[in-house]
User: Which sequence fits this backbone?
């Protein structure tokens, strides 16, 4: 039976203190749930999203056949994270542009009646802030303890942070294609993308909504850079190589000899991805989410000692990385594995030999799927969620 | 004795037919020479430049102490390419913004008296076109045969192309940190940089000179992307890591929590490099040179068979690559080595274990310097240039 998803929203009127020292006066979180919470409330699984995803993790919306959730291949009835056994929660993070309170929403500190939205005044939010907000949502859902928290990439950072901020509320953490912090190169790519957005004349210091503009040029560049880093060199060569979009018959070598037109297929692909993204993504959200990535660094408060930082974590872990992921390389996952083992934690680790780069965490590699399925089978046993 | 460089210019009034089918009506090339051409005219070495370099390869300009040429550590009296033994020629390529005819020069096809510069109408030039233009310069200098042609990165592509276009005029080719063509990922980075420039409102379709503007935003982004790809992940982590530019004392973790301000040292470094570049580099030149990189592909006319393509080359070769260069990875140099060996050519190959990424070809790694020095010693023997 197909999974039909229904988006929900929860309002919070108690202010949320943020890591930066600022606070959010009141806010809403968009979320979805799939499956049924069991009587013991022991089968809840929280899914954390990465850069451009949302609370719509699995299933489709009624009457919209092509509205699959972003991790629908992983989560659903009979899937590796089986919604026949688990009560799965997808939540949209603060600062996003997909429903939860973010830069496009009214700023309660603006003059009354001004209707002014946050824009660039939305406070900087961190992975830790998101986790705190997610914990409050679980409170309203009556969930004290998660069978598992799971995420890929930036979502994996949230899963890891859960085990440090709320160790007593997490039984298992599944951290896929992630890292204990960003490298200088990761930050560098984020910064170039941000500069492209911020220096777009249509950005207006982040208050473009009032000007009726959208910094689409910047968003396009940001997305093109992102796409390069999501793919491996190998898969790009296999998929696009040096293929021309359309060979010019009058030219001996097929080249059209232009500096501005599309010549190669890879250019066409990147432009398409950039154009598509600029139509739906919010520029301030892009800045906020990349900054959350930059700032995440649990070892920082421990002089860079990740083993000390992870002492607080008490749950069991599954980490997964992909050999050709150069954005969050396997060695970054191994740092986490090593630090957990230093603390005698129960850790499973799978390094999947996949050609697809960072994108692999969203794809259907059967070995990856099997590893996650088998891990969730064992979770089901341990939390009494076996069917 | 310090090497004093004197820029020269050579005008050519015979049109140059370009690979695209277009032609340049007349043009000038800026160049410099160092050392003395011997009586047998057998000791000439041509140096080809990469993206943002010029004919000013070695030495300093009189009275300008800080005006070292871009490869001054490699070339000069007593240096690996020893100007006491070799007559070394640096030449600025067509389409550049450092003296040779380029987009900033008057377009002879514009209405008389309009004074209109080429701008975006400068014809697309290829590595092969550059080599043809360089060959004409050698003709005017009375040099029939080069003791060696040498270049790094895009300059290495020119060196390789020399051995194919003028096999009888080259005795040795030194190809450093280069590749037989760009990968899809290489093209992708070039394309993002070009899109940043072309979509900058100050670009005006490439005719910004007439508008009194410079697409600096785009140039900055282009340069920031470039810098990321010139460095290795390792050297970036070592040099910048996650260091903050200035920790905020009032903040528990030192973060200033801003999406638009500089937070990390790597951001500061990239912004500085971008700003500097936008002050002196021409946007149309950037498009032209990255396209020359994209198009270079000697195997293309041979159905992708590099061994067949390199059959024409008859000279001896030295190839050098650097282990952490991910822009032009060692495996790309090995493709060239393999193709030359398939043709029983005389090839030396050094893979230098250096941490500096693509930038290493401009740096002072002693093993790299020794390899080049020793190779040029043997060239000196073979061409009668030994002192």
Assistant:
């Amino acid at each position: 039976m197909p999974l039909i998803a229904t988006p929900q929203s929860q309002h919070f009127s108690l202010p949320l203190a943020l890591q930066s020292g600022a606070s959010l006066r009141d806010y809403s979180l968009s979320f979805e749930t799939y499956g049924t919470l069991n009587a013991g409330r022991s089968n809840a699984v929280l899914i954390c999203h990465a850069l451009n995803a949302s609370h719509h993790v699995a299933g489709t919306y009624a009457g919209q056949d092509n509205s699959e959730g972003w991790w629908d291949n992983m989560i659903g009835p009979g899937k590796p994270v089986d919604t026949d056994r688990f009560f799965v929660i997808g939540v949209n993070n603060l600062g996003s542009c997909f429903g939860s309170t973010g830069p496009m929403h009214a700023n309660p500190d603006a003059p009354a009646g001004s209707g002014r939205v946050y824009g660039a005044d939305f406070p900087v939010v961190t992975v830790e802030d998101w986790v705190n907000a997610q914990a409050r949502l679980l409170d309203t859902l009556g969930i004290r303890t998660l069978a598992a928290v799971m995420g890929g990439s930036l979502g994996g950072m949230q899963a890891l942070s859960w085990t440090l901020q709320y160790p007593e509320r997490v039984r298992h953490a599944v951290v896929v294609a992630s890292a204990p912090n960003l490298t200088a190169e990761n930050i560098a790519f984020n910064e170039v993308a941000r500069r492209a957005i911020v220096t777009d004349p249509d950005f207006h210091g982040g208050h473009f909504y009032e000007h009726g503009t959208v910094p689409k040029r910047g968003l396009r560049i940001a997305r093109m850079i992102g796409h390069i880093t999501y793919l491996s060199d190998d898969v790009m060569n296999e998929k696009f190589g040096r293929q021309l979009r359309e060979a010019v018959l009058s030219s001996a070598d097929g080249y059209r000899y232009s500096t501005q037109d599309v010549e190669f297929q890879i250019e066409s692909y990147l432009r398409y991805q950039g154009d598509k993204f600029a139509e739906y993504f919010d520029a301030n959200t892009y800045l906020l989410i990349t900054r959350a990535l930059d700032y995440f660094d649990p070892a920082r408060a421990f002089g860079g000692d990740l083993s000390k930082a992870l002492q607080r974590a008490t749950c069991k872990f599954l980490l997964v990385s992909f050999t050709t992921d150069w954005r969050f390389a396997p060695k970054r996952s191994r740092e986490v594995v090593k630090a957990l083992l230093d603390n005698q934690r129960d850790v499973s680790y799978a390094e999947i030999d996949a050609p697809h780069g960072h994108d692999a965490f969203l794809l259907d590699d059967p070995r990856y799927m099997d590893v996650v399925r088998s891990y969730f089978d064992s979770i089901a046993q341990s939390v009494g969620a076996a069917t």
About this structure: The first strand of chain A starts at residue 4 and ends at 5.
